[in-house]
Structures are given as structure tokens and as C-alpha cells.
Design goal:
This protein is an alpha/beta fold. It has four helices and 19 strands. The protein has a five-stranded parallel β-sheet. It has a four-stranded mixed β-sheet with strand order 2-1-4-3, with no helix packed on it.
């Protein structure tokens, strides 16, 4: 009861200070503002005489990691000491470090730190690697499955020419089984890639069920059989104008509802899966073009090429 009374007295004094200059001078009110520099918002703090700034919960920013609060912006030479009692109103500025890594080992070291990630809120990282690093990347992503961590990979700065078969699938030869890298939530494929390879039960991304976002680089020419088969969280995909062939069941994903073609693909650029016309098939088995519709599911005019900037919509 005594504590409540004292609190009410303190609040009353604070309110009075708004109208009474003498009271304001006694309380020495200070306002601390937090500039998150594009990160999640952090509320201001109102301090009174002798009070220290309370360290707020770290803000978050897409693709960056938080590196502390500073009294100076841009240069970030002076980190703030939270043991200090401020003498006047002040603004603290958030420092950010972009998640860019030049090797798989560097990325692994970062991801080994305590991170709280989910499928809906993965850790967004940029990774610059080459063809020889693909195997190490696959092992890292599989390890993340075991650790329950999720990543969105931006490989746009990488120099990779091929996404090989089983690039994101771990094969266990001892029991003839495979395990997709379900830690992968999104990927930006670099423009240097010319081929996304596949094969029966060998698709580069086959079975990556948490993959929700795919950006295919502008240099990709061919997308192999089963390349994205059973990536069942994918809802849409855009095929760049560089692509001239798409393999069997490359995009056989149950929740994929639209496919947009930016360029021209000849009629023979689509695999014609006559062996599994209902279960798998090619894109034409489940889609037709819209605006205006041409043909019906499974009967798309095979002799007609796809003309640029057209979207196929999945049919029931």
C-alpha cells in the first residue's frame, strides 16, 4: 500500500512538472529517443533525475544483424554506455552489419551463434561462393535442419554456373533414402547460373517443402527434370526470358498456383511426360494460359510456343 501511495505521489509530481517550471527543474526530466536506422521501432524513454537508460530489446532488420547503440550516427565511433546517467535529452542510433559472408565456413560460424528463427522469420544472409562450395553448403543446410534453424539465401553475388542435381538433398546410400534441406526458406539464384539440374529423384531442390520464395537468375537456360518437384510451399514462380527448356515435373508443386513466363519458350522446350500424364506430367497438364485462356488443362496447344510476359494459372 505504501509503495502504491509513493508511486501516485511521484506520478502527480511528474504531471505537475509539465505546468510548473520549478518542479520540472527538480525532476530533471530527460527524453531518450532511439533511432533504429530502418530496423523495428523502439519506444522513447522518459527519465528523471539520476535514472539510467534502460537497455531496450534489440531491434531487428531484414538481412542485417544488430551491432549496438551509438551516440553518433553513420560513423558509429562512440558506443553508448548504459551505466551512464544522461545529462540532457539524447538520441541513440542503431548500428547494423549486413549479413554478407564470403565462405560457407564463415556463414556456419555465424549460424552457430544463438539464433531464434522460424519458417516465417528466417535468417536472411548473402553468401558469395563458387561451384566448389556447393557440397559444403548442402551439408550446412542439412545441419541446420537438425538444429531447427531456417535461412533465406541470397546467392546473387556468387559465381556459380550450375545448380547440380541433388544440390539441396542429402542422400543416404545405406538405406537408399534422401533428405531434403528443409532449412531453406528462400533463395536468390545468381545470374551466373546457366543450368538448374535434375533427374528422377535427383531434382536440385526436390522436396524442399519449406521453400516459399525462388528468384531464378537471368542467365538460367535450362531447368531440369524434378528440379523443384514437391516444393509444396511455393505458390508462384517467374521464369526469366533466358530459359528455353523446362524438364519433366520440374514444378510439380501442389500449392503452386501461377507461373509467369518473361520470355519465349518453344513448344518443344517443355518435357512431354507421356509415361505419367496424370500424376506428374509437364506444366501443360495442370495449367493453361490466361488472358485469354488457350486450351484446357492437359490439352494446351503443343505446337504453340509460349510468348513473353504471360502467366499460366493452375486449374482444378
Amino acid at each position: 500500500m505504501k509503495k502504491s501511495y509513493l508511486f501516485l505521489v511521484f506520478v502527480s509530481l511528474a504531471l505537475c512538472a509539465c505546468e510548473n517550471p520549478w518542479m520540472a527543474e527538480v525532476l530533471e526530466e530527460k527524453i531518450v529517443t532511439f533511432n533504429s536506422n530502418g530496423g523495428s521501432p523502439v519506444p522513447d524513454q522518459v527519465l528523471f533525475k539520476g535514472e539510467r537508460v534502460k537497455r531496450p530489446t534489440d531491434p531487428t532488420k531484414y538481412g542485417f544483424r544488430f551491432a549496438g547503440w551509438y551516440t553518433d550516427n553513420v560513423t558509429f565511433m562512440f558506443p553508448y554506455n548504459f551505466d551512464f546517467v544522461p545529462l540532457e535529452d539524447m538520441t541513440l542510433h542503431a548500428k547494423w552489419i549486413e549479413n554478407i559472408f564470403q565462405s560457407v565456413d564463415d556463414l556456419r560460424e555465424f549460424l552457430n551463434t544463438p539464433l531464434l528463427t522460424t519458417v516465417a522469420d528466417p535468417c536472411v544472409v548473402k553468401l558469395n561462393i563458387n561451384n566448389s562450395d556447393m557440397l559444403a553448403l548442402k551439408q550446412l543446410l542439412f545441419d541446420l535442419v537438425i538444429e531447427g534453424k531456417y535461412v533465406f539465401l541470397d546467392l546473387s553475388g556468387s559465381v556459380i554456373t550450375t545448380i547440380p542435381s541433388n544440390a539441396f538433398r542429402v542422400i543416404d546410400a545405406s538405406n537408399n533414402s534422401s533428405y531434403p534441406c528443409n532449412s531453406l526458406v528462400g533463395i536468390i539464384i545468381p545470374d551466373s547460373v546457366q543450368s538448374i539440374e535434375g533427374g528422377h529423384e535427383m531434382g536440385a531442390f526436390q522436396g524442399c517443402e519449406n521453400l516459399t520464395s525462388v528468384t531464378i537468375g537471368s542467365g538460367v537456360i535450362s531447368i531440369g527434370d524434378y528440379a523443384f518437384h514437391a516444393c509444396n510451399s511455393l505458390t508462384n514462380v517467374t521464369i526469366p526470358d533466358s530459359v528455353n527448356s523446362i524438364g519433366r515435373a520440374a514444378f510439380d508443386c501442389i500449392n503452386l498456383t501461377s507461373v509467369t513466363f518473361k520470355g519465349n519458350i518453344p513448344s518443344n522446350g517443355f518435357a512431354n511426360d507421356s509415361y505419367f500424364p496424370v500424376f506428374l506430367g509437364d506444366l501443360r497438364d495442370k495449367y493453361y494460359t490466361g488472358n485469354p485462356p488457350v486450351g484446357t488443362p492437359g490439352t494446351y496447344i503443343a505446337t504453340q510456343m509460349v510468348s513473353g510476359d504471360i502467366t499460366w494459372t493452375k486449374q482444378p
